[in-house]
Design brief:
About 65% of the residues lie in helices and about 10% in strands. With about 600 residues, the chain is of the alpha/beta class. Among the domains are: about 170 residues, ABC transporter transmembrane region fold (Up-down Bundle); about 250 residues, P-loop containing nucleotide triphosphate hydrolases (Rossmann fold), CATH 3.40.50.300. The strands form 2 sheets. A 6-stranded mixed beta sheet has the order 6-7-8-3-9-10, with helices on both faces. The protein has a 4-stranded antiparallel beta sheet with strand order 2-1-4-5, covered by helices on one side. The longest helix has about 45 residues. It is elongated, with a radius of gyration of 35 Å. It starts with 10 loop residues before the first helix and ends with a helix. About 35% of the residues are buried. The structure holds adenosine-5'-triphosphate (ATP). One of its GO terms (cellular component) is plasma membrane. It comes from Desulfobulbus oralis. Keywords: ATP-binding, Cell membrane, Membrane, Nucleotide-binding, Transmembrane, Transmembrane helix, Transport. This is ABC transporter ATP-binding protein.
Length: about 600
């Protein structure tokens, strides 16, 4: 297994090696403690596996007894042979019975573990800060939940019982060999250290490439998911070739590391194969000499040959299991990374927001080293409307996400209804805030089910009222099954604007006192814009509204507009005041008006051609 020599010379690599070593050890510990939680069934499965293994060599021992009888007593009757044959047959039959029981038990346990592990991961995901999902792609999480968890089934269902059975069989075989004759036993095991050395060499040479291979395979997974999910964009932008090449590159990277591992593996493995089967060259001449001089019986010699030659096979099996174990340790590492990711801290004495006011106090924030927001202040009374505007990359979406606690602020505090959001229980926070983001997500379910995400027990009347307020009812009724229409993955047949209005209806149903809306830039045709504006008006009248605005015409009525530039507040005020006082806002407004006129001209041009 992958714990051993660190083959790198530089300090950096030594440290990296040590880190990997301790991660491997931790992951192995997790694997074993997972087995220990079901120790009753796991131990019985291991014992059954061991018995099955012992029964596999028992017929050879019986055969040697028979040979003894034949040699010592030449006049043996054929009927005397039958008990030996029957015993050997029974051993073989029971070998498979025990192996079968071991497999059934270990698989029952394995599937139980699989079930609980998948549930544990699924329960963990909602407890993670929302920012976690910005960092990890769905492809990476999918790989952990499907493939890495599957490795645990292989560990409990196959590897562990086989590993225990084969290790004990190896020891038992060596003991029997020494019991038969110590000189022949030494001859049988003499080449094995060479085999072990070869294996240790493979492991140490492959340590780095193995880790790189697993990272490359994770990348391949992500690329594959993106290749499939992004197919409409890829085709629309005729990026089929470049996207396919990206996918091919990730596959090639994977096979590159596979090739390296094979190269590292080829020579030591060949050496091992030769060594594992070379003991016959020692046993046969030495055994013949010992027999000629009367030091061993013919039956002992035959038995040494039969089980001694099997030693290579047992070790080969152990080595194969060792390499499976490496994969399982690697899978467990990824599962643990997810399971032990830092959750939003539990609040000891949770605070409750008293109203729908929002205060952003001297907030600074950095994703990594560079500050994205610096000393930002906002004060919003309940029921008021705040717009965040500014050039691309100014930090508008980041500020909106901080209000939802995607991440915690670096300095300062964000208060909802007077309570620091770090002191508010995560569920309570979500009860007070609704949000509609640019990357709209709809479940592959009916329109009604998607709306009910906002309020699971909403009546049909409530659904329709929310849909009417968000300007969705008419297009929903025009769908083939109305509210029972299955929208399909990513919203299927709905337009971008329609999907956004569905999300607004969902937020309306949730009826949280504060709404954060990261306005989408993509769905800007005038009809949609007017409809979205009306949908927003429905939200505004009794809610505190924070809108990250790209279409400035939708926020001219905001109580306060905060202009962000390079992470700092460059100006603030109403639309009219900012037009008079802020050059940056004026420029943004002029750019917006120009783009609207351009779209209008484009449309007129289109109409003329029609
Ligand atoms: N998850 C992230 N990790 C690291 N950097 C990020 C992350 N999200 C955003 N950034 C960076 O933070 C900066 C501010 O991004 P943000 O999305 O908040 O800007 P924005 O004003 O909303 O831009 P836009 O109008 O284009 O949506 C950008 O430089 C962006 O590259």
């Amino acid at each position: 297994m992958g714990i051993g020599i660190t083959p790198f010379s530089s300090t950096l690599r030594m440290n990296e090696g040590k880190r990997m070593h301790s991660q491997d050890a931790n992951a192995l510990g997790s694997l074993l403690s997972m087995a220990a939680q079901h120790k009753g069934k796991v131990m019985v499965a291991c014992v059954f596996s061991l018995v099955a293994q012992l029964l596999s060599i028992a017929p050879f021992v019986i055969l040697s007894f028979l040979i003894d009888r034949l040699v010592d007593d030449g006049s043996i009757q054929s009927t005397s042979v039958w008990p030996y044959v029957t015993a050997a047959t029974l051993c073989l039959v029971f070998r498979y019975v025990f192996a079968g029981f071991a497999a059934v038990l270990s698989h029952i346990t394995a599937y139980d573990i699989l079930h609980h592990l998948r549930l544990a991961i699924a329960k963990k995901l909602p407890r993670l800060p929302l920012g976690f999902f910005n960092r990890k792609t769905s492809g990476q999480i999918r790989k952990v939940m499907l493939e890495d968890v599957e490795q645990m089934e292989l560990f409990i269902g196959h590897n562990l019982p086989d590993l225990v059975g084969s290790t004990l069989l190896l020891l038992m075989t060596i003991l029997i060999l020494f019991w038969l004759d110590w000189r022949l036993a030494l001859a049988a095991i003499a080449p094995l250290p060479i085999g072990f050395f070869a294996q240790a060499l493979t492991i140490s040479r492959n340590r780095e490439s193995r880790s790189l291979f697993f990272t490359a395979s994770e990348k391949m997974n992500t690329t594959m998911v993106q290749y499939i999910h992004g197919m409409p964009v890829i085709k629309a932008f005729t990026r089929t070739e470049s996207s396919f090449n990206k996918y091919v590159d990730s596959v090639s990277e994977c096979s590159y590391y596979e090739d390296i591992m094979c190269e590292h593996w080829a020579l030591p493995m060949t050496l091992f194969q030769v060594a594992a089967n070379a003991n016959m060259l020692l046993i046969l001449p030495l055994g013949s000499l010992l027999w000629l001089h009367g030091h061993v019986t013919i039956s002992a010699l035959v038995l040494v040959l039969l089980i001694g030659l099997g030693l290579g096979g047992i070790i080969q099996q152990l080595i194969m299991m060792g390499s499976f174990l490496e994969q399982q340790v690697e899978g467990r590492k990824r599962i643990d990374t997810l399971l032990f990711s830092t959750e939003l801290p539990e609040v000891e004495n949770p605070a409750t927001p008293q109203d729908a006011s929002l205060r952003v106090e001297h907030v600074s924030f950095a994703y990594e080293d560079n500050d994205i927001l610096r000393d930002v202040n906002v004060n919003l009374e309940p029921g008021r409307f705040l717009a965040l505007v500014g050039p691309s990359g100014a930090g508008k979406s980041t500020l909106a996400k901080l209000i939802l606690r995607f991440w915690d602020v670096k300095n300062g505090a964000i208060r909802l209804g007077g309570a620091d959001i770090r002191q508010v229980d995560a569920n309570e926070l979500m009860r007070h805030v609704s949000f509609v983001f640019q990357n709209i997500f709809l479940f592959n379910d009916t329109v009604a089910a998607n709306l009910r995400v906002g309020k699971p027990d909403a009546t049909q009347e409530e659904l329709e009222a929310a849909a009417r307020a968000a300007r969705c009812h008419d297009f929903i009724m025009a769908l083939p099954n109305g509210y029972e229409y299955v929208v399909g993955e990513k919203g299927g047949a709905l337009s971008g604007g329609e999907k956004q209005r569905l999300c607004i209806a969902r937020a309306l149903l949730k009826n949280a006192p504060i709404l954060v809306l990261d306005e989408a830039t993509a769905f800007v045709d005038p009809e949609n814009e007017a409809d979205i504006q009306l949908a927003l008006n429905a939200l505004v009248h009794d809610k505190t509204l924070i809108v990250v605005a790209h279409r400035l015409s939708t926020i001219t009525s905001a109580d306060e507009i905060v202009v962000l530039d390079g992470g700092i507040v460059a100006a603030r005020g109403t639309h009219v005041r900012l037009l008079a006082e802020s050059e940056l806002y004026r420029n943004l407004w002029q750019a917006h008006v120009a783009s609207k006129e351009w779209r209008l001209n484009q449309k007129k041009g289109g109409d003329l051609h029609d």
